[in-house]
Amino acid sequence: MLSLLAVLLVLSLSLLIVRIGTMALVLTGLSPQIARFQARSTYFGVGFTTLESEKVINNPVRREITLTLMLLGNAGVITMIGSLVVTFVQVPDEGLLSQIWFRWLVIIIGISLVVVIGYSKWVNRRLSPLVTWALRRFTRLDAFDYSAMLH
To answer: Is the separation of the CB atoms in 139 and 21 below 8 Å?
Structure first.
Protein backbone atom coordinates (compact mmCIF):
# COMPACT_ATOMS: atom_id res chain seq x y z
CA MET A 1 0.00 0.00 0.00
CA LEU A 2 2.94 2.30 0.66
CA SER A 3 4.09 1.93 -2.94
CA LEU A 4 0.62 3.01 -4.12
CA LEU A 5 0.95 6.16 -2.07
CA ALA A 6 4.41 6.71 -3.57
CA VAL A 7 2.91 6.59 -7.07
CA LEU A 8 0.33 9.22 -6.14
CA LEU A 9 2.93 11.35 -4.39
CA VAL A 10 5.24 11.28 -7.42
CA LEU A 11 2.34 12.20 -9.70
CA SER A 12 1.38 15.09 -7.41
CA LEU A 13 4.96 16.32 -7.25
CA SER A 14 5.23 16.07 -11.03
CA LEU A 15 2.23 18.35 -11.48
CA LEU A 16 3.65 20.77 -8.92
CA ILE A 17 7.08 20.81 -10.56
CA VAL A 18 5.56 21.50 -13.98
CA ARG A 19 3.50 24.32 -12.46
CA ILE A 20 6.61 25.82 -10.84
CA GLY A 21 8.49 25.50 -14.13
CA THR A 22 5.63 27.20 -15.93
CA MET A 23 5.61 30.10 -13.49
CA ALA A 24 9.40 30.39 -13.75
CA LEU A 25 9.18 30.62 -17.54
CA VAL A 26 6.39 33.20 -17.25
CA LEU A 27 8.62 35.30 -15.00
CA THR A 28 11.23 35.36 -17.78
CA GLY A 29 8.76 36.94 -20.18
CA LEU A 30 7.01 34.04 -21.92
CA SER A 31 3.25 34.07 -22.19
CA PRO A 32 1.47 31.67 -19.82
CA GLN A 33 0.25 29.45 -22.67
CA ILE A 34 3.69 29.08 -24.24
CA ALA A 35 5.31 28.61 -20.83
CA ARG A 36 2.84 25.87 -19.83
CA PHE A 37 3.36 24.01 -23.11
CA GLN A 38 7.15 24.28 -22.96
CA ALA A 39 7.30 23.24 -19.28
CA ARG A 40 5.13 20.18 -19.88
CA SER A 41 6.96 19.09 -23.02
CA THR A 42 10.32 19.57 -21.34
CA TYR A 43 9.36 17.76 -18.12
CA PHE A 44 7.90 14.77 -19.94
CA GLY A 45 10.71 14.64 -22.48
CA VAL A 46 8.69 15.17 -25.63
CA GLY A 47 10.65 17.55 -27.79
CA PHE A 48 8.79 19.88 -30.07
CA THR A 49 10.83 21.93 -32.49
CA THR A 50 8.99 25.18 -32.90
CA LEU A 51 9.70 28.87 -32.90
CA GLU A 52 8.51 28.85 -29.30
CA SER A 53 11.13 26.30 -28.27
CA GLU A 54 13.79 28.46 -29.90
CA LYS A 55 12.68 31.31 -27.62
CA VAL A 56 13.36 29.04 -24.67
CA ILE A 57 16.71 27.70 -25.87
CA ASN A 58 18.13 31.07 -26.93
CA ASN A 59 17.67 32.58 -23.46
CA PRO A 60 20.20 31.38 -20.83
CA VAL A 61 17.79 31.66 -17.88
CA ARG A 62 15.04 29.76 -19.69
CA ARG A 63 17.59 27.17 -20.79
CA GLU A 64 18.55 26.55 -17.14
CA ILE A 65 14.89 26.17 -16.21
CA THR A 66 14.32 23.63 -18.98
CA LEU A 67 17.47 21.70 -18.09
CA THR A 68 16.24 21.42 -14.51
CA LEU A 69 12.81 20.30 -15.70
CA MET A 70 14.42 17.64 -17.93
CA LEU A 71 16.44 16.26 -15.02
CA LEU A 72 13.50 16.23 -12.63
CA GLY A 73 11.24 14.71 -15.29
CA ASN A 74 13.55 11.76 -15.83
CA ALA A 75 13.83 11.19 -12.09
CA GLY A 76 10.04 11.35 -11.76
CA VAL A 77 9.41 8.83 -14.52
CA ILE A 78 11.95 6.39 -13.08
CA THR A 79 10.48 6.74 -9.59
CA MET A 80 6.95 6.27 -10.91
CA ILE A 81 7.87 3.11 -12.84
CA GLY A 82 9.73 1.70 -9.84
CA SER A 83 6.79 2.37 -7.53
CA LEU A 84 4.33 0.77 -9.95
CA VAL A 85 6.51 -2.32 -10.30
CA VAL A 86 6.75 -2.67 -6.53
CA THR A 87 2.99 -2.19 -6.25
CA PHE A 88 2.14 -5.10 -8.52
CA VAL A 89 5.04 -7.45 -7.77
CA GLN A 90 4.67 -7.49 -4.00
CA VAL A 91 4.02 -10.86 -2.42
CA PRO A 92 0.29 -10.88 -1.73
CA ASP A 93 -0.90 -11.17 1.84
CA GLU A 94 -4.36 -12.09 2.92
CA GLY A 95 -6.97 -9.39 2.89
CA LEU A 96 -8.34 -6.61 0.76
CA LEU A 97 -5.08 -4.64 0.43
CA SER A 98 -3.42 -7.50 -1.41
CA GLN A 99 -6.07 -7.84 -4.12
CA ILE A 100 -4.96 -6.68 -7.58
CA TRP A 101 -8.36 -5.15 -8.37
CA PHE A 102 -8.20 -3.11 -5.16
CA ARG A 103 -4.76 -1.80 -6.09
CA TRP A 104 -6.03 -0.78 -9.52
CA LEU A 105 -9.06 0.88 -7.91
CA VAL A 106 -6.84 2.88 -5.54
CA ILE A 107 -4.57 3.95 -8.43
CA ILE A 108 -7.49 5.00 -10.65
CA ILE A 109 -9.27 6.92 -7.89
CA GLY A 110 -6.01 8.47 -6.67
CA ILE A 111 -4.89 9.58 -10.14
CA SER A 112 -8.35 10.99 -10.84
CA LEU A 113 -8.24 12.95 -7.59
CA VAL A 114 -4.73 14.26 -8.29
CA VAL A 115 -5.71 15.33 -11.81
CA VAL A 116 -8.90 17.06 -10.62
CA ILE A 117 -6.97 18.93 -7.93
CA GLY A 118 -4.03 19.64 -10.25
CA TYR A 119 -6.20 21.23 -12.93
CA SER A 120 -8.57 23.00 -10.58
CA LYS A 121 -8.87 26.73 -11.24
CA TRP A 122 -9.54 27.24 -7.53
CA VAL A 123 -6.23 25.57 -6.60
CA ASN A 124 -4.43 27.44 -9.39
CA ARG A 125 -5.68 30.83 -8.15
CA ARG A 126 -4.30 30.11 -4.69
CA LEU A 127 -1.11 28.30 -5.68
CA SER A 128 0.11 30.60 -8.47
CA PRO A 129 0.65 33.69 -6.27
CA LEU A 130 2.49 31.56 -3.72
CA VAL A 131 4.78 30.02 -6.37
CA THR A 132 5.37 33.42 -7.98
CA TRP A 133 6.25 34.96 -4.61
CA ALA A 134 8.67 32.11 -3.81
CA LEU A 135 10.34 32.30 -7.23
CA ARG A 136 10.76 36.08 -6.97
CA ARG A 137 11.99 35.84 -3.39
CA PHE A 138 14.48 32.98 -3.78
CA THR A 139 15.59 33.19 -7.42
CA ARG A 140 16.61 35.74 -10.03
CA LEU A 141 14.32 34.98 -12.93
CA ASP A 142 13.45 38.48 -14.05
CA ALA A 143 15.79 38.25 -17.05
CA PHE A 144 13.45 39.27 -19.86
CA ASP A 145 14.33 38.98 -23.50
CA TYR A 146 13.67 42.65 -24.25
CA SER A 147 14.39 42.48 -27.98
CA ALA A 148 11.78 39.75 -28.45
CA MET A 149 9.29 41.66 -26.32
CA LEU A 150 9.79 44.84 -28.39
CA HIS A 151 9.17 42.94 -31.62
So the answer is: no
